[in-house]
Write a structure and sequence with these properties.
alpha/beta, 7 strands, Rossmann fold, globular, seven-stranded mixed sheet, 7 helices, single chain
Amino acid sequence: MESSNVQMDLASLEKTYDRYSSFYDLIFGAFFSPGRKKAIANLQFDDGASVLEVGVGTGASLNLYPRHVKITGVDISEDMLRLSEKRAQKACRPVDLYTMNAENLEFPDNSFSHVVAMYVVSVSPDPAMIVAEMMRVCRPGGKVVVLNHFSDDDSLIGKFEKALTPLSSKLGFKPYFPLNKFRQECDAIAFEELMKTNLLGYWSILKGTKS
């Protein structure tokens, strides 16, 4: 099977998102907010629920979770995590934050009732590995949610995204990211496409259940 790896490496990603951290919320915060709200609203959190947010970034989603949910967040960028910590402290919201590579999560199997990755999988050198790790640390019967943009090969935008592929490492994400290929590579879980979201429905929310 062809790999999704496209001129991306962890060191360059860390530098890129450390650089983005100072203005990320200003440019992307409100723009990406509808997708975050919809993704979390479509989850049911029972008593004792715990969520791992992969790529928690600046913590823009932390206040969207119910107060009784135990939140753990990981990110590769320490600068992003510092902003996330400040946001959690301001909201008096206890959150466990770790600098961690999502392709190699340092948690035991079956640790969380929900595992969420929002605007993350197209950033990774190996999206399928991220999903495999999300599945591993999710409890049986738990939910795995992915929110991301997915390319349409037949559209003008899709063709433009493909042309931007050589710039992936500089942009900090893969502009060309087809859904069918992502589904094929993440064959350990059957994702259901819940809904389109954000501007022009360009982003999609996927949800699967760990059997």
